[in-house]
Amino acid sequence: MSQPSANRPAPALIFETGAPGRATEYVERSRPHTEFLPQEMLRESLPLPDNSELDVVRHFTQLSQRTFGIDLGFYPLGSCTMKYNPRINDAMANLPGFCDLHPYAPDDLAQGSLAVMYELERSLSSIFGMAAFSLNPSAGAHAELAALLVAKKYFKDRGESKRTKVIVPDTAHGTNPASAAMCGFKVISLPSDARGRVSLEEIEKVLGDDTAVCMMTNPNTLGLFEDHIAEIAAAVHRVGGLMYYDGANANAIMGNVRPGDMGFDLMHLNTHKTFTIPHGGGGAGHGPLGVAAHLVEYLPTPVVRAIPDGKSELRRAPSDGMRFELDFDRPKSIGPMRSFWSNFAHAVRALSYLYANGAEGLKSVSQLAVLNANYLRVGVSEFLATPYPEICRHEFVASAQELKKETGVRALDIAKALLDRGFMAPTVYFPLIVPECLMMEPTETESKETLDLFIEALREIVETAKRDPQSVMAAPVNTVVGRIDETRAARQPDLRWRQSG
Amino acid sequence: MNIPSDLLYSKEHEWAKVDGEIATIGITDFAQGSLGDITFVELPKVGAKVEQFSNVGVIESVKTVSDLYTPLGGEIVEVNTAIDADPAALNTDPYGSGWLIKIKLSDTAQTQQLLNAAAYTDIAHD
User: Fold this and answer.
1) With an 8 Å Cβ cutoff, are B39 and A401 in contact?
2) Does A170 touch chain B (CB under 8 A)?
3) B contacts of A400 (beta carbons < 8 Å)
4) d(CA A246, CA A229)
5) Given CB atoms, is A432 within the 8 Å cutoff of chain B?
6) In chain B, positions 36-65, which contact chain A (CB-CB < 8 Å)?
7) What's the CA gap between A239 and A188, in Å, rounded?
8) Looking at the complex, does the CB of residue A174 fall below 8 Å from at least one CB of chain B?
9) Which residues of chain B have a pLDDT value below 50?
10) Considering the entire predicted model, what is its pTM?
11) Rounded distance between C-alpha atoms, residue A263 and residue A218, angstroms
12) Which residues on chain A are in Cβ contact (under 8 Å) with B37?
């Protein structure tokens, strides 16, 4: 792949360009701000860049050409679900009625936006088999924390504060034990069995009257469906514990199986993954938290309440014939997890995606995601070991352990070599139980041709590693920046620009 | 791989050197090799009482973040503060300048639950 921006010198920082007085002013200044601000708060100078509009446009356009995203190429980052984000969802979120609404607008003036929140909440509850969802948390880990706060309050109300342990399998996303620890629980790590699943025998060893929550992802991070989930949920419930579903892998199951039916009491969704919201730049996420009936009153405030208006008779959508209000008066709630109505524009994007696909469409989204992952898995298994060689769900893991022994080339080197060939690297070194792990999730939006190109690129890297390992270890050489010293970046991070002189 | 014969080992890849009622504790050569370049270490406070095999800290590397478990229980009497400035010592000298904590043992009999070098060699592989 040609890289037009390769080897072009890095643009200067915006702070290092421009000159005083260069900023183009399109609107005449009104009264000087010095008339409004207290004298002691005024400062002599404010070192902000002073650039013309054209220079600013060029600066950021050039930066955007030096990066990589789903709009440029294949992005198989495992457990991140980097699917294509249809533009229609952004267009919906940008409708003036949504994006110009003031957050303090009274409910009467915000009926359309409240209807979006209500319809999304009802739809998610139906798709995932929960009694209710809160759209309040900002992302997955934030929702995990909210869920554990719900569990903590629930146990406290029942006089069961002795429940201090949270069980987490060793394949779990790192956020699970982190959220549990943050919430003051003791984390019990559960070893996976030879089939890469949670073992009923192992979990029964740690269950007891101090069990609070068991956090699981299904399918798990090896891309395998936990086929004993009903028995595991029953065992956890038997000792009085709660089951938590980490929805990071929900793209594998929509319309096919519901966490509520598997026995989960709490769950989160990453709508930025499963329902196509641009992510990956660390930008705003959205993590709805779902709960079973016995936990609804603990959900974060506010929730959208629907009241029949007694006027409309024909109901085509859940919001028809309803008026909405925000309900803050929920005495058992854990309270708000963040200000205002969370990342509301993401609720619009998610609902737009959901309605564009419909029930059958969402089902085929998951089925195609699984089909693509299996096509990739079989292709890759011709030249890299796949430690769990069975039908996977939306993602799978390969291991470069043998290649490393043979040639010295590690999973990290393969990842860097993929960048040279125009692909984003898969997730590496996760899950932790697979040595030299490469975790790939193609998602449903890739064509067979793209998957074939990726498989051939990977095959060529493995063959090159056997012939000329040094060249793979030197990768990437075609990218805007070469191999980065990750160790030095972590040990001596340089995170702040300081004005010189 | 370096597995000194005069140390005791845990299944979690920590080593202990017992001298009377004081034990020096660190992570093994195998552990540092698996973790990769270590970038940050979080250690317990001097004076903390810790139980055998409990989680006493965190080791962060370029690849991953791992819990640090203590192979022996007791009171923390010293921590290697030099590690803060030079976490690379864990990679280059895990049994020497990369030591992590010193513990005043609550029960020296706990050493019977640890492995000798020969037994540890059997489990120190991928």
Assistant:
1) no
2) no
3) none
4) 14
5) yes
6) 37, 39-40, 60, 62-65
7) 16
8) yes
9) none
10) 0.87
11) 12
12) 486-487, 490
CB-count burial class (<10 Å; 0-12, 13-18, 19+) for B19 = exposed
CA separation for the pair A483, A479 (Å, rounded): 9
| Residues with pLDDT less than 70, chain A | 1-8, 24-29, 312-314, 500-501
Q: Chain A contacts of B87, Cβ < 8 Å?
A: 491
- A50/chain B closest Cα distance in angstroms: 38
ipTM over 0.85: no
CA distance A490 to chain B (A): 6
Q: Cα–Cα distances in Å, from B26 out to A280, A334, A474, B99?
A: 37, 41, 33, 5
The whole-angstrom separation of Cα A56 and Cα A50 is 10
Interface test with B, best of A430, A436, A484, A486 (most B CBs within 10 A): A486
How far apart are alpha carbons B101 and B80 in whole angstroms? 6
Give the containing element (helix H, strand E) for A135.
none
Q: A432 and B64 in contact by Cβ < 8 A?
A: yes
Polymer length in residues for chain A:
501
How far apart are the C-alpha atoms of A224 and A407, rounded to whole Å?
Answer: 30
Number of structural domains chain B divides into: 1
What pLDDT score does A8 carry?
Answer: 61
B49: domain CATH number is 2.40.50.100
Q: Which residues of A touch B63 (CB under 8 A)?
A: 429
Write down the CATH number for the domain with range A360-491: 3.90.1150.10
Around B64, how many Cα atoms within 13 Å sit in the side-chain half-sphere?
Answer: 23
CB contact under 8 A, A486 and B62: yes
Nearest-CA distance from A376 to chain B in Å? 25
Instruction: Decide if B113 is inside a domain.
Output: no
- Which pLDDT score is estimated for A24? 65
Q: What is the DSSP string of chain B?
A: ----TTSEE-TTSEEEEEETTEEEEEE-HHHHHHH-SEEEEE-PPTT-EE-TT-EEEEEEESS-EEEEE-SS-EEEEEE-THHHH-TTHHHH-TTTTT--EEEEES-GGGGGGSB-HHHHHHH---
- Map out the domains of chain A as residue ranges: 14-65, 360-491
Nearest chain A Cα distance for residue B1, angstroms? 15
